[in-house]
Write a structure and sequence with these properties.
InterPro entries: Rieske_2Fe-2S (IPR017941), Rieske_2Fe-2S_sf (IPR036922). One of its GO terms (molecular function) is 2 iron, 2 sulfur cluster binding. Keywords: 2Fe-2S, Iron, Iron-sulfur, Metal-binding. With 125 residues, the chain is mostly beta strands. It has one domain: Rieske [2Fe-2S] iron-sulphur domain (Rieske Iron-sulfur Protein, 3-layer Sandwich). 0% of the residues lie in helices and 50% in strands. It is built from no helices and nine strands. The radius of gyration is 16 Å and the shape is globular.
Length: 125
């Protein structure tokens, strides 16, 4: 699988979201808590440009003792990318859809060597 250098690890600040074309494939690169996550820019729901969406903390419903919803709050560290076409939400770290395990983003293999970030992209997949 072809390897592409996309920059030094320290060039990507925490919270960064970068869109790029690597080996003819659109890729979204995200840096969270020092880790780098890369996904193909294709939403599994209907093919939208998922990596172009907004990043939000995961929404949590506040449920009282009787099972009634009493508002919302946000998770301190979980971050989701929200597809701009239909609002599908995916965990940036795992690529999993927030509501169902059936949908997930397609990962781009990422390697950090000597402070450099390399992506392994197969344009046929």
């Amino acid at each position: 699988m072809p390897e592409f250098r996309v920059g030094r690890q320290d060039e990507f600040a925490d919270g960064d979201k970068r869109l790029m074309i690597v080996g003819g494939v659109e890729v979204g690169l995200f840096r969270l808590d020092g880790d780098i996550f890369c996904w193909r820019n294709i939403c599994p729901h209907q093919g939208g440009p998922v990596c172009q969406g907004q990043v939000f903390r995961r929404v949590l419903d506040v449920i009282d003792e009787s099972g009634q919803q009493r508002g919302r709050t946000y998770h301190d560290s979980d971050k989701n990318i929200v597809c701009p076409w239909h609002g599908a939400e995916f965990d940036i770290r795992t690529g999993r859809h927030a509501g169902t395990g059936r949908l997930r983003l397609r990962a781009v293999a990422t390697e950090i060597r000597d402070g450099e970030v390399y992506l392994h992209v197969d344009s046929d997949q």
